[in-house]
Amino acid sequence: MTDTPAALREAHHADVSGGWLRPAVFGAMDGLVTNIALIAGVGGGGVSPRNIVLTGTAGLVAGAISMGLGEYTSVRSANEQVAAEVAKERRELERHPEAEARELADAWVARGLPRDLATQVAEAVRRDPEEALRVHVREELGVDPDDQPSPWAAAISSFLFFSIGALIPLLPYLLGATELWLTLAVGGLGLFVAGAVVARFTNRPWWTSGLRQLLLGAAAAGATYLIGSLIGVPGGL
């Protein structure tokens, strides 16, 4: 079988700028950890299964809305900041094109390009204002002005995956179980699986990624369970 060089394949990198993967991963993990810890806390305090379901459901809805709104605001604000910097760079290119071309050449020289070649390329780039803007923004800001993440994609992804993650530890109670340990076990399994799935995108060993998420969730659940046990609820309301 012929090993085709990656550079000759049309898409040999994962999409890291679409704006959905990071909030999806963060949302699912946050949903799992938040509701596992929340259920462990109120369960440790001795509340009834009915109130655990009520608490977990409220945590799911409130957390999903908060995550969605937070991601939308965060990504949109970041995009607006990039747009403001792009506008600033556009003004500089219009007012001081020679100085900007020298700045670009200096950056390439610092990377090891010969001065004559760097100057020649910078002058060639300068002839196309839009391409010059893209190149300067990439070099100076480290971003692609034409490939910014979508705030809506981030918000919807975060909302949906938080909801899915937060639902997992609630399932045993929704299906009629009354034992707290069963919910914690299901939530722990969800954390391990979610961590293993994340490893698919990062090329890390699936079991170390899964174990890491499990340990983090266990720490959160242990802390809230301890606090719930210390505070307690009289009569197991």
From TrEMBL:
Keywords: Membrane, Transmembrane, Transmembrane helix. InterPro entries: Ccc1_fam. GO terms for biological process: intracellular manganese ion homeostasis. It comes from the Bacteria. The chain crosses the membrane at residues 152-174, 180-202, 214-233. GO terms for molecular function: manganese ion transmembrane transporter activity. It is a multi-pass membrane protein. GO terms for cellular component: endomembrane system. The keyword DNA damage does not apply. It is found in: Endomembrane system. PANTHER family: FE(2+)/MN(2+) TRANSPORTER PCL1 (PTHR31851). This is VIT family protein. It comes from Micromonospora inaquosa.
